[in-house]
Amino acid sequence: MAAATIKFLYRLALVLSVLLTSAAGIVSNTTLVNNGANITDGETMVSDGGSFTLGFFAPTGAPTKRYLGIWFTASPEAVCWVANRDRPLNDTSGVLVFGSARGLLLLDGSGQTAWSSNTTATSAPAVTQLLESGNLVVGEQSSGSILWQSFDHPSNTLLPGMRLGKNPQTGDEWSLTSWRAPNDPSPGDHHLVLDTQALPAAIVLWQGNVKTYTTGPWNGLRFSGIPEIASYSGMLSVQVVVRPDEVAYIVTTMPDAPFSRLVVNDDGTVERLAWEPVSRTWNVWMRSPRDLCDSYAKCGAFGLCNSATASTQFCSCIDGFSPASPSQWYMRETSDGCRRRTPLDCSNGTTTDGFMVLGGVKLPDTDNATVDMSATLEQCRARCLANCSCVAYAAADIRGGGDGSGCVMWTDGVVDVRYVDKGQDLYVRLAKSEFAAGKRRDVARIVLPVTVSLLALTSAAMYLVWICRVRGRATRLAFLQAAERPNSDEAMIDSLSAPNDLGDDDFDLPFVSFGDIVSATNNFSEHNKLGQGGFGKVYKGMLDDNKEVAIKRLGKGSRQGAEEFRNEVLLIAKLQHRNLVRLLGYCIHGDEKLLVYEYLPNKSLDSFIFDAAGKHVVDWPTRFKIIKGVSRGILYLHQDSRLTVIHRDLKSSNILLDTDMSPKISDFGMARIFSGNGQEENTNRVVGTYGYMSPEYAMDGIFSIKSDTYSFGVILLEIISGLSITATRFTGFPNLLAYVSMLTFVNLLRHGAYGKMIRQLIWWIQPFQGLVRQMKFYGASK
């Protein structure tokens, strides 16, 4: 009965709202207004199809400020155009007058002009109409010629049919400017324009005089940095028009497509929104900037940004270049960019330079580019080589498929390059010697395996004799030499079978054939890939016994070399604990090195605690469980195993979670074993991940069990705060430690068991006692 009553009341309210809207004013159902008419506050003009409404409104949170605007009828908060952005009315006495000498005239209660369309005076009768497109048009009644239209004066929204660009003949520009705030339509700091100074055209977002984002140049189908355009190409037609009187970006709607709009928000983001009539919500089709790599020139000149490499560093240098300021890059300040390793050879009209193909990228900023749409790509290459200032080229138009057509050439430098879905090929100019080095490596890959294979036949017999005589004295050097020689599987396996630092002569870890691994992973298909990192890639597989496994395939250029591979095989095989990941087997095939682990479906800890959705899965009891499990694993390594083991690379991404969210420590490639009474060692080879390293290890190479304890403390902070030690968001703080000390845990430090745990944690890992005292004083003052 209650449900039926509610439904009846809802329908009654809907009918009443329609009736009230119809009676709101004389002009409410009129879309064509003659000279002399007006609209007062409370009256509206609605387009023929009812999609748009013109009238007075007050932004949410600012009820005393009244503006004349156009909004989407079904969603009144979606204001598309505002007349008096700079001069709000202070009451409801405003009136819009049609057909004055100045066209449309907005007057306040005292008769003062708050806004005018400044329409050119005409003796012919004029009419004003709100079109179904959302365009408010003033035109001559007899000829139909347009005297003024709101589409020529955008606010912060671009509707289908509007233009973003410029008229080169008159200098008129069509651009978007954000609101000052969500409740303040006055012009804000963010300005979206089509850059017509250089072609191909690109859309640029400015904050004041600072360029903050570009879409990449237009390539005939889309802007090279906005792959999302391809996803809605069946609903919206997107084009860049280049004519003597117009260079403009124009979007038109396909039949039956949902209504959409492009908005520049007051926070500096640009969104393509589409209306969902059933749920009555706006769905986000595109948002820019989408990530850190979209920040303009994030990696500087000749830098390359990759949003998938957050575990190392977003920025790298294009092949053939190195950081211009290594110390700044070390501190993640990469705006200085990169410089050539080898100067170009260009003199007397001749050159030996060549081009390297950089595939799948957003093309560079076109401020220093030139375009020739009639040239072929081969002609483009020749022109670039003939110009000593030319550093890169690309196809200007990819609509024809293949390598594309047209020619864009960049001189002096390239900036704002990043990897992106559906990216283009960029041809970067390099000195001949850079290619010679690559060719030498290619030759070595062919010649060395043949030579080593012959030597291996002789060495195998000698090795068997040697292993019988000196069994028990296998050295790390022997393993390294075997590991680095292609096609030396036997030597590698024998080295793993040799007596090891744990004191065992027997080694019973199963060897898995390469063929079985290929079959288990469906030939290392992308569908089976679980993830990747600096070491290589991890695949999910199913062995013959129907057992799910995770297979780590070490990359050929992996940071995990032969010594680390041997460490991981021996340590995980011999150190058995429920909070250490289980190694089920290994494989060595030519220069392929693979490890077979138990499969843990919940992946790594960082995929939960740093993910906006995943962090809600791990509640406080689960986080406590993870913390205790990790601590048990570390205690076993440091105290309860036969020898003391220092992990040296403890971090959130190396903590894996099983189906019960129990943690397991993984990645023992960097581990060290302490024998006897050893408490501390020194190394010149500092490995691990900065941020998780203790200061004495990162700066002086000194490591001990305290190094792992420091890393454990950082992981604790990350688990409790949900923030990454490597995050760049801590404005005004050097890192997560300082951020947590000063702000995040002020209340927790004062109350409860978690506060006690955090206070102890800060004392464990904070080397600067002054900061801790400052934190305690700050907490006590609350």
UniProtKB/TrEMBL annotation:
EC id: 2.7.11.1
Membrane topology summary: Single-pass type I membrane protein
Catalytic activity: L-seryl-[protein] + ATP = O-phospho-L-seryl-[protein] + ADP + H(+); L-threonyl-[protein] + ATP = O-phospho-L-threonyl-[protein] + ADP + H(+)
Family annotation (InterPro entries): Bulb-type_lectin_dom (IPR001480), Bulb-type_lectin_dom_sf (IPR036426), Kinase-like_dom_sf (IPR011009), Pan_app (IPR003609), Prot_kinase_dom (IPR000719), Protein_kinase_ATP_BS (IPR017441), S_locus_glycoprot_dom (IPR000858), Ser-Thr/Tyr_kinase_cat_dom (IPR001245)
PROSITE patterns (alphabetical): BULB_LECTIN, PAN, PROTEIN_KINASE_ATP, PROTEIN_KINASE_DOM, PROTEIN_KINASE_ST
First-listed, main subcellular location of the protein, grouped into a coarse class: membrane
Species annotation: Sorghum bicolor (Sorghum)
The protein's name in its UniProt record: Receptor-like serine/threonine-protein kinase
Pfam family for this entry, one: B_lectin
Domain Apple: 346-431
Bulb-type lectin domain: residues covered: 30-151
Family that this chain belongs to: Belongs to the protein kinase superfamily. Ser/Thr protein kinase family.
GO CC annotations, alphabetized: membrane
Binding sites annotated in the UniProt record for ATP: K552
Localization, UniProt: Membrane
PANTHER family listed in its UniProt record: BULB-TYPE LECTIN DOMAIN-CONTAINING PROTEIN, OS01G0783900 PROTEIN
GO terms for MF: ATP binding; protein serine/threonine kinase activity
